[in-house]
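EI: anyone free to look at a 286-residue chain?
SC: sure, send it
EI:
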Amino acid sequence: MKKYKPTSAGRRDGSVIEYKKKLTSTASKPLKSLTVGKRSTGGRNSFGRTTNLYRGGGNKQTYRLVDFKYDKKNIPARVETIEYDPNRTGFIALLLFADGERRYILAPQTLAQHDEVLVSETAKIKPGNRLPLSAIPIGTFVYNIEIKPGAGAKIARSAGNYAEVVAHDNGYTLIKMPSSEIRKVISTSWASVGAVSNEENRLVDLGKAGRARHRGLRPKNRGSARNAVDHPHGGGEGRSPRGHRRARTKQGRPTGKGQKTRSPKKYSNVFIVERRKPGRLMGGKR
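SC: here you go
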């Protein structure tokens, strides 16, 4: 992590990840055959209506086709490069398989150039290798976890994240999620060993509004500072209280302050063994 000297108000408190120390020097551009154009939505849906607020602008990005299904099994691959991906917080690795095909994967911590990676039921327990959950010992850190076998990786994919294998029980594997929730996943689902790379991502301080705008993030104001027609917290004379017992989103749904927002009829509730713990662990205040 590199911290800037306060040579100006915009530089003060700003920090950046030292990519030169973490990425492969030869990876200046992504492999063209594994990229596609990406259109910025600006937070709007197909009707042109804003559905995600505070989005717009930002630098143009090329989308890298990252393999989350890992359907090339029992074929060893060698890491050619570790690269930056503007579309995700973790780094990606370019693999060269023994049959000559190249694919991008989400890189784990400690994975380096020229390392070997294998997707197999008999693979060794080392970072980057991928196995069924039933073949992974208790206490192992995993990422890129499937919820359903063959559906592709869904759980623990952002920078520095990992889940822990807690137990194997009656065809299911209990994993401790990054949120501290303990959840059952069918044991025939696959997972990658290790933790997602770029663990310093959460320590980055943008330092100024301009860096946020380059990422496509627009200014965000408080609901209580708006008019009543624009937000449930808005309106009133001067600095008025929100007028509701519980905090709400712009759409009127409950949010924040330790409130439970999960649907009581959600299909996956039966797979949750222990709920996540609120408070500092989740970035909130007790």
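EI: The CA atoms of residues 77 and 100 lie 9 Å apart.
SC: 👍
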